[in-house]
Amino acid sequence: ERPYQRLPDFPAWNLSPESPWNYGLCLDERSLERVEVRWESKDGFPFELDQARLRVRVPARRIPGWKMKQAQSVKQQAGRFRDGGFHFGIYTMEGDIHLTPPLPKRIPKRLGREEWIELVPYGCTLLRITVFPALPVEE
Q: What tens digit of pLDDT does each residue of 30-50 get?
């Protein structure tokens, strides 16, 4: 096991969401009638949030108890270049580390009110959620 070395030319930052992120989607995959898709024709760089060409609004509910994890040390299996070659091993990173939690194993029966959230393409934001839990659609 080797400690992870931070290089002075490559600083690291902790990024945290400024708004709620812990949503599950309330959609019926067989019928996406409740999805609102908006394509926009804009000039500028397409991966800036205010220049996103595609916006999708979907019904969702926040999942209580699904929170960011925090750790002081994380071990990861990774490859590194050193001594002219690629070496695979387990590395330890230390510090105030915020981690994306795994999807919840159990979703509480009582959830908050349904909200509409807006999704944009993956490259338009610094923090990204790529998989959302599926929640029952209330009739």
A: 888 889 999 988 787 888 888
Distance separating alpha carbons of residues 68 and 94, to the nearest angstrom: 17
Is the pTM here over 0.85, yes or no? no
Task: In the chain, count H helices and then E strands.
Answer: 0, 7
- Give dist(CA 19, CA 60) in Å, integer: 14
Residue with tokens 């019928």: 31
DSSP label of 31:
B
Task: Spell 70-99 as b/e; 16+ CB within 10 A means b.
Answer: eeeeeeeeeeeeeeeeeeeeebebeeeeee
